[in-house]
Task: inverse folding
């Protein structure tokens, strides 16, 4: 079974399902597994560590995987991009920062340029800078973003740049989401939190269990966890995490947390190290409601394709269309 | 042409398209037009004015329309609900407040109880209090709400209360949105901003023009406009409006605006009266990107059904499903 779109044609994959390059979580193993299952894995270059990237690209082996960067962070050490491009990845994904300074280099290396965008303005700018694929990112997902929401944002991007393949990102965790994204005008989806709760994802087992047991009513957009890990992003980015004792203690008290940053950052780092997610943040989106297990990543792809194919083939008995 | 679901069966209508009971904007004329076009119109009871309600229910005439209340406001004058129920509407919609005190009365009068919910907890509570239909409301829409987003919230509600028909609300403005909502597990949609920009909607022509020319990148959730019209809602509700000079001037300065409330409220009221939307807020959602004209409401229904029916019938050439 397969679902083809102009996105799968361009990426030369079987299913329009991309792995979000979640910092650290999307390692070589997870990315390779998603690609081998017919999707497109993207390694999370995150804040940039050359030895980590070298190792994980090695782990991915001959699987066709891309690499994603947090652009404003990578821009401080552009050598990281060169390092990755020397290894000839089929695609590079840029998120959260200026596309223009890096686009030429990426295209020249023969990689597809995937740009994740959070506003219509960013979408137009990315396309003006030769993006091949856009990821239209809503703020309901885990991790960083701005404020648009997936449901109205995807069709708006589709209308603004109709000639560019689009993946809908954030809030998508099952075949219903994939089918809905295609209805809205997307050509596929990019999946974060659902793949975080997979066997192959890096990161602690306790964090994965938190995702399985959490409710989407209980997430928060915040910069508290960035302050606590001494990693404050440029405005206007904030990030979505599961609420916990730490977020509730400091909510609305960002300035005060900054004033106590030294001692709190130490406590926070220790909590992360031991997997204490009452203090450390689990980065996850509202779609946690739809996540109830920690299967192999290939099983996630299979389920998503099967469910979406059924819905798209009109197998549902939930509606009836009459032509008169 | 028609699209039937268990929601249309229950409401006895042709299309699963409900008019959001936008305060003042959803008057008798608009509600009746939507119902006569095959959807289900709901008059906006808003903050409650008996003579307005009497007049608008009269204008709707023999069209089958419901009435929607801002529950916390109506609860201060429950006589309003009695007044409406005496006129035997087919359905009452409650949003933003406790369902329990009013549910018995509504059901006893033979009306369907539609409950708009913003969290999974509210969804379960509404069903425990005999709701017949839920409206799962994301925060990307215009007007008041909380913080869940339509794309991941709708399937979560569908999973939590599978036996209850659900309308997806907020961010839906065309047939793509209707088709996507059905894929996500909803049985229909409830439409606000798109119907605001219709010929029949009450409210100023200038506000409708603002909706047509606005971009979804330029909306904001805020309580500033509530402070300025002396109408502060209970927590945790905030409302989405188009950004304008007023919102940008006062953003982050809620306390200061309260301290200047007397003079600012006067200025604000005058701006509303003359249609100066550089100061007065246009209540609208992120879906403004998808709204480019001010057609008759029946034309909006027709377009939405035609587009959705095409998508649901697999007429799209944007994807191909292969079974092997």
Result:
């Amino acid at each position: 079974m397969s679902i083809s779109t102009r996105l799968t044609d361009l990426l030369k994959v079987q299913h329009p399902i991309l792995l979000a390059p979640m910092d650290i979580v999307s390692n070589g193993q997870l990315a390779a597994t998603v690609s081998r299952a017919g999707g497109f894995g993207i390694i999370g270059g995150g804040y940039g560590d050359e030895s980590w990237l070298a190792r994980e690209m090695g782990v991915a082996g001959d699987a066709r995987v891309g690499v994603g960067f947090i652009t404003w962070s990578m821009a401080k050490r552009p050598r990281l991009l060169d390092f990755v491009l020397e290894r000839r990845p089929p695609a590079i994904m840029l998120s959260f920062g200026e596309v223009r300074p890096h686009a030429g280099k990426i295209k020249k290396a023969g990689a597809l340029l995937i740009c994740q965008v959070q506003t219509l303005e960013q979408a137009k700018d990315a396309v003006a800078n030769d993006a091949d694929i856009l990821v239209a990112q809503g703020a309901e997902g885990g991790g960083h973003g701005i404020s648009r929401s997936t449901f109205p944002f995807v069709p708006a991007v589709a209308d603004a740049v109709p000639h560019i393949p689009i993946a809908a990102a954030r809030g998508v965790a099952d075949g219903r989401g994939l089918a809905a994204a295609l209805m809205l005008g997307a050509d596929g989806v990019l999946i974060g939190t659902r793949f975080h709760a997979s066997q192959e994802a890096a990161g602690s087992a306790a964090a994965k269990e938190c995702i399985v047991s959490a409710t989407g009513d209980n997430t928060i957009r915040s910069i508290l966890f960035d302050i606590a890990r001494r990693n404050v992003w440029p405005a206007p980015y904030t990030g979505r995490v599961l609420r916990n004792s730490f977020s509730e203690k400091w909510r609305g008290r960002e300035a005060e947390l900054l004033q106590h940053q030294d001692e709190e950052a130490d406590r926070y780092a220790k909590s992360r190290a031991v997997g204490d997610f009452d203090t450390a943040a689990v980065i996850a989106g509202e779609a946690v409601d739809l996540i109830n297990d920690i299967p192999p990543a290939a099983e996630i792809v299979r389920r998503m394709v099967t469910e979406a194919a059924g819905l798209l083939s009109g197998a549902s008995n939930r509606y009836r269309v009459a032509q008169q």
Summary: Chain B touches chain A through 59 residues (CB under 8 Å). The mean pLDDT of chain B is 96. The two ends of chain B are 33 Å apart (CA to CA). Chain B has 16 helices and 13 strands.
